[in-house]
Inverse folding.
């Protein structure tokens, strides 16, 4: 459904020396600096897929999303979304996509959401009965039906985001771009929006690209992760594979049997004492270690032999930590 | 319902929601413009000691001066239509995303404002006619004038759209809109009727767009324009509109290539 | 006092850097004011094709008056105008909070923090036009009158700023106020015509509570017709009265602002 080949975008920004002298000089002579926001990105997304687009601030996430949604005209490369070139903005194309930006309100600020939805119905020419049915399903799922008559600017951030989501889905888009849909929301609202997105996927089977700074969003929603750094894709594949090939450590957690260990817990080993890996936690009831993958089995047996273990679990490292480590490593390389 | 019609209605609603400010501002600006014109021409007539100047009686000049701010508001209604602002703050993205024709929407909204101004013009003309008599305005001249205003509004829209779209490259262009207004003010006969200009200037201005925005519709309203001149004027208005619509679509295409939608 | 001057130097530096950042806009604005100057010159040329005198002044004298109000306008644009545009916004959005917590007069801060570098260049042009109009007078000007004229023009600009500020003060009680500028600029047109064309009660308004005729006409009269004490006193009294009035209302407004905000 989405296909991009060698997509690139360059911006020109001017540099200015600090101070008044620099400003005066810049009035007549300008030093331009070319910023490569995207450097030849290839990406394919199929129906029903939710792709998590992850990267640091300024890595090019939003630029990529905007290019695929047709807002930005790329400098080079090709893209096809639903068989259309996005930046030609054919009406047929625009009727089938939606872009949600957590940072930016699209609904009309001074109108109640309900009025905005009616306007969108006209814009997208959604048949009346389908519009009513969609609106009912969406407002019920997000439990916001009672707020439809309140001006957008008087809603809370969470309510506004829910309205934006409804606005974006009223026309049953087949391709959905979600740019930080949960930014600034509390945990309950974040959870509601995540469940809602999964629900929408079950019903409509769209292709979705999601960017977020909350690793929980990525973890709960995306089977596939695309890492972008300085305008280049550095990883594109399954979440599990990302962990398998890039997580260098596993986390061992051992719960200790009460009563058998000293109240203050077993003495915390000092220095190179034979306990493998890095100690994350060490107290009377629980021991948590971070060990290299290859040594996980050995570390587990060491724990079982040396301490009164009631329960032992071996888990993958937190995905956020893995991604963070990857970004650092690539930068160093 | 047609989508342009919806945006038109929305524009009317928005303009009416600022009722008090709208009317205070309107009365203040029309009143003060008229007041300055009144004293200026009174002084000139006194100094000259004549009854007519370039074919205008004092009463005729006053009616002309009253029509200037009214017609100006109808044809160059909004100072800025928000195109530049939407380019600057990224609000344009919304329209790029929706299956809409941007200029159609913008024209519908600006037309909404100018309809309200035309309504005000009609009210004030009616009051004027009731107090001072019709002074040259007939149903036919009214028809000719309102048609000319409608065409002029179309021209004014495309003219301003061109300037506002320079915001793709210049960030802030309100100064251009102000310049446009001032140019229309002098070259369109807003400051002084063009009859007071030297002949060479008048014949040159005939071929520029600004005369179609103010002087031409006002003279139509006052019944100073014959059928052939009226037709010629409308043709010129349309011709200039087409020129500016053409350059606007060029700017639009070029501009979208550099549009960044704010915040990479 | 020294502290305020140093603060002002900082405002200038910041504003100039900021203005130069948007260079197309910077040049556009300079050009905009040049268009305005051209239109004013064109207007007086056209009017004097119809009449030998306007408000008692000949063409040459009227042009000197015009040069005067172009200078008044340019000074006001350079020092105050941008700030006045921002003032209602600052009060509505609650930005005023930032200025109230600082140990500096909020009125000083809000009136002067933005210095318009582009208008400073236009001020150069305006002064040039004024010089040109003075030089083409048939008789050489009287030195004392010329000095008084030049000294009064900046005060004309102060009066211009005072009137703009007065027109914006209702924003403290009204909430919104984006259209108040329109009212001010509508009335400000009266500044651009010789004061003696206005008669009756309108004239009385324009030299007292709406003193637009004082801004450029009175300085020009001092120059063209010699210094008269009544005119000078009148001029000084109105500026002082507005100064006191503004301080009074401003403090009232701040009280309304601080009790309304949460």
């Amino acid at each position: 459904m989405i296909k991009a080949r060698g997509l690139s975008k360059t911006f020109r920004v001017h540099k200015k020396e600090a101070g008044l002298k620099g400003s005066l000089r810049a009035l007549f002579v300008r030093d331009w600096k070319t910023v490569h926001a995207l450097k030849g990105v290839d990406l394919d997304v199929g129906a029903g897929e939710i792709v998590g687009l992850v990267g640091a601030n300024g890595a090019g996430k939003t630029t990529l999303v905007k290019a695929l949604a047709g807002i930005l005209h790329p400098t080079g490369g090709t893209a096809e979304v639903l068989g259309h070139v996005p930046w030609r903005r054919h009406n047929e194309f625009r009727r089938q996509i939606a872009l949600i930006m957590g940072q930016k309100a699209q609904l009309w600020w001074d109108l109640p959401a309900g009025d905005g939805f009616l306007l969108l119905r006209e814009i997208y020419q959604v048949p009346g009965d389908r519009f009513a049915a969609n609106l009912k399903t969406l407002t019920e799922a997000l439990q916001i039906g009672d707020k439809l008559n309140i001006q957008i600017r008087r809603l809370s951030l969470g309510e506004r985001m829910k309205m934006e989501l409804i606005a974006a889905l009223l026309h049953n888009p087949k391709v959905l771009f979600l740019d930080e849909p949960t930014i600034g929301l509390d945990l309950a609202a974040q959870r509601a929006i995540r469940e809602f997105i999964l629900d929408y996927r079950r019903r409509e089977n769209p292709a979705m690209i999601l960017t977020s700074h909350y690793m929980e969003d990525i973890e709960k929603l995306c089977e596939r992760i695309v890492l972008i750094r300085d305008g280049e894709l550095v990883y594109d594949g399954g979440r599990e594979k990302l962990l398998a090939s890039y997580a260098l450590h596993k986390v061992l957690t051992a719960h200790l049997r009460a009563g058998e260990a000293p109240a203050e817990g077993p003495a915390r080993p000092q220095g190179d004492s034979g306990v493998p890996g890095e100690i994350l936690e060490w107290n009377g009831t629980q021991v948590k270690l971070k060990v290299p993958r290859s040594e996980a089995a050995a570390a587990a047996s060491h724990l079982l032999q040396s301490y009164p273990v009631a329960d032992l679990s071996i888990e993958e490292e937190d995905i956020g930590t893995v991604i963070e480590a990857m970004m650092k490593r690539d930068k160093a390389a | 319902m047609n989508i342009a019609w919806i945006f038109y209605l929305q524009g009317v609603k928005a303009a009416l929601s600022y009722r008090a400010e709208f009317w205070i501002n309107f009365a203040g600006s029309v009143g003060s413009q008229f007041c300055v014109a009144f004293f200026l021409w009174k002084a000139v007539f006194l100094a000259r000691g004549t009854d007519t100047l370039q074919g205008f009686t004092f009463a005729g000049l006053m009616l002309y001066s009253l029509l200037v701010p009214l017609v100006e508001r109808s044809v160059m209604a909004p100072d800025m239509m928000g195109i530049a602002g939407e380019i600057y703050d990224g609000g344009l993205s919304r329209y790029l995303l929706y299956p809409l024709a941007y200029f159609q929407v913008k024209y519908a909204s600006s037309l909404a404002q100018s309809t309200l101004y035309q309504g005000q013009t009609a009210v004030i003309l009616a009051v004027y006619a009731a107090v001072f008599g019709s002074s040259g305005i007939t149903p036919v001249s009214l028809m000719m004038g309102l048609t000319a205003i409608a065409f002029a509004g179309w021209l004014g829209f495309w003219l301003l759209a061109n300037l506002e779209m320079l915001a793709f490259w210049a960030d802030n262009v309100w100064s251009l809109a102000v310049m446009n207004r001032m140019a229309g003010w002098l070259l369109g006969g807003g400051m002084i009727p063009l009859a007071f200009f030297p002949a060479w200037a008048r014949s040159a201005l005939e071929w520029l767009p600004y005369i179609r925005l103010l002087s031409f519709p006002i003279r139509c309203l006052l019944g100073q324009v014959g059928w052939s001149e009226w037709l010629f004027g409308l043709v010129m208005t349309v011709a200039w509109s087409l020129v500016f619509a053409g350059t606007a679509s060029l700017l639009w295409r070029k501009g979208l290539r550099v549009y960044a939608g704010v915040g990479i | 006092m020294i502290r305020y001057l140093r603060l002002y130097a900082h405002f200038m530096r910041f504003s100039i850097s900021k203005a130069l950042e948007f260079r197309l806009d910077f040049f556009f604005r300079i050009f905009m004011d040049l268009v305005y100057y051209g239109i004013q010159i064109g207007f007086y040329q056209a009017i004097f094709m119809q009449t030998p005198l306007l408000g008692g002044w000949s063409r040459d004298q009227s042009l000197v008056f015009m040069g005067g109000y172009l200078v008044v306008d340019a000074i006001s644009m350079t020092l105050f105008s941008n700030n006045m545009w921002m003032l209602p916004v600052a009060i509505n959005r609650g930005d005023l909070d930032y200025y109230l917590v600082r140990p500096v007069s909020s009125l000083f801060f809000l009136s002067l923090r933005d210095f318009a570098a582009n208008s400073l260049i236009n001020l150069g042009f305006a002064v040039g036009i004024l010089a040109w109009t003075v030089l083409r007078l048939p008789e050489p000007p009287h030195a004392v009158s010329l000095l008084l004229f030049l000294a009064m023009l900046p005060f004309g600009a102060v009066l211009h700023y005072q009137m703009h500020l007065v027109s914006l003060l209702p924003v403290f009680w009204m909430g919104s106020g984006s259209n108040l500028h329109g009212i001010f600029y509508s009335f400000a047109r009266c500044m651009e015509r010789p004061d003696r064309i206005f008669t009756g009660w309108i004239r009385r308004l324009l030299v007292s509570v709406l003193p637009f005729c004082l801004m450029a006409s009175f300085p020009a009269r001092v120059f063209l017709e010699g210094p008269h004490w009544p005119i000078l006193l009148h001029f000084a009294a109105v500026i002082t009265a507005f100064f006191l009035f503004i301080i009074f209302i401003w403090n009232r407004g701040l009280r309304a602002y601080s009790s309304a905000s949460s």
About this structure: The mean pLDDT of chain B is 86. Chain B touches chain C through 40 residues (CB under 8 Å). The CA atoms of residues 127 and 221 of chain B lie 16 Å apart.
